[in-house]
Amino acid sequence: MSAGLRCPVCRAEWTDAPQCRRCRADLALLNAVESERRRLLARAGERLREGRPAAALTLAEQAAALRPTVEGSQLAAVAQLLKRNFAAAWHSYQQAQGAASR
Ligand SMILES: [Zn+2]
Fold first, then answer.
1. Strand partners, 35
2. Position 24 pLDDT exceeds 70
3. 3-class DSSP string for 13-57
4. Number of domains in the chain
5. Can you give the pTM of this predicted structure?
6. What CATH number did the domain enclosing 74 receive?
């Protein structure tokens, strides 16, 4: 899902198409960044299931650098909790809340 993403040229809602459906802007690069972000988050989820929260957190942070999302912040919060880093977990949780209300 890429809910909330918009074409940087005309602000039309952007689906996964390589071109904007309204202005035909080339969105292939955005597509590549977005799929890389999803791949990083999927790997972060795998690391969590393996009980490796530090590795999961690194991947979640890389994903957030591409584009901050609710799911990324939630993943980071869980990873921080597993690391018993409660202050950082709270911070990530608040980021997830903030991203959700945008
Ligand atoms: Zn457009």
1. none
2. yes
3. ECCCCCECCCCCCECHHHHHHHHHHHHHHHHHHHHHHCCCHHHHH
4. 1
5. 0.80
6. 1.25.40
**Strand (E) or helix (H) holding 97:** helix 86-101
Q: How far is the CA of 20 from the centre of ligand 1 (A)?
A: 5
pLDDT digits (tens, 9 = 90+) for 53-96: 999 999 999 999 999 999 999 999 999 999 999 999 999 999 88
Find the 5 Cα to ligand 1 centroid distance in Å.
11
Please give the distance, rounded to the nearest whole angstrom, from the Cα atom of residue 29 to the centre of ligand 1: 14
The range of the structural domain enclosing residue 83 comes to: 28-101
Q: Does residue 15 belong to any structural domain of this protein?
A: no
Rounded to the nearest whole angstrom, what is the distance from the C-alpha of residue 16 to the centroid of ligand 1? 13
Q: For residue 97, how far is its CA from the centre of ligand 1 (angstroms)?
A: 29
